[in-house]
Amino acid sequence: MLCCEFGSSQCQIQSWLRDYDKIQSLAVILIYIQIGCALVGSLGALYNGVLLINLGIALFALVAIESSSQSLGRTYAVLLFSAIVLDILWFILFSHEIWNISSEMYGALVIFSVKVTLSMQIVGFCVRLSSSLLWIQMYRLGVSLVEMTVPREADIDLRNSFLNPATPALVGHSGSEDALGGSIYDPVYYSSLFEDGQELDGHSYGVGYS
Q: Where does the sequence pass through the membrane (predicted)?
């Protein structure tokens, strides 16, 4: 019985990890958590510069997701990696000093605010690590989906699916469709309208002279 429950739970986790939309929704929630931690931590009297940097990176991530821009998504991936490295350096340089801050030099309120800054930085760092794993999975799902739906001989960059993976409904359309807003501009559809119009003109022309 326990084996069956474990197997079903494992299947549910695997299916969830293959769902791009659910992973992206969780990534957005984690970004909001990072924003909240950065806002609270930035209220500290000292050592709050890194939290302001993380706040700017998190806001940039929201813009990248909402705009579905591939270039912004790749830029955020680089910024996220840089933020994690910066967090590690910050912990090495300042965590011991903050934890053992002198009560003789600073008041109780300053010490409390600085320790809140350290706590928020720890929480934000853990969230950023989790978020990086989600973004890696989003990238893998996007690339694998394009490989399954787009022909091998097509001249396409497979990594264009980082934030907005291709769907089967869009397979076979030209690359300019994605650049101009998806189904808003469909060259195949509009060319078929012109062809139908030409056939109708030719038919009426033949009837007039028959």
A: 47-65, 77-99, 105-130
- Please give the biggest Cα pair distance in the chain: 107
Which residue type occupies 80? L
Structure tokens at 139: 């990238």
Count other Cβ atoms within 10 Å, centred on residue 133.
Answer: 11
Cβ partners under 8 Å of residue 164, min gap 6: 68, 70, 142, 178
The 3-state DSSP composition of the chain as helix, strand, coil percent (nearest 5) reads 80, 0, 20
Taking the C-alpha atoms of 110, 114, 52 and 67 in order, what is their torsion angle to the nearest 10 degrees?
-120
* Cα 55 from Cα 61, distance rounded (Å): 10
Return d(Cα 35, Cα 54) in angstroms, integer. Answer: 8
3-state DSSP call for residue 164? coil
- Nearest Cα neighbor of 80 from 39, 42, 17, 27 is 27
* 96/169 Cα distance (integer angstroms): 55
Please report, for residues 66, 106, 116, 135, the alpha-carbon distance to residue 12 in angstroms, rounded to integers and kept in the order given.
Answer: 28, 52, 37, 20
- Tell me: pLDDT of 157 over 60: no
pLDDT at 183: 38
128, 34 in Cβ contact below 8 A? Answer: yes
Q: Given a cut of 80, is residue 91 above it in pLDDT?
A: yes
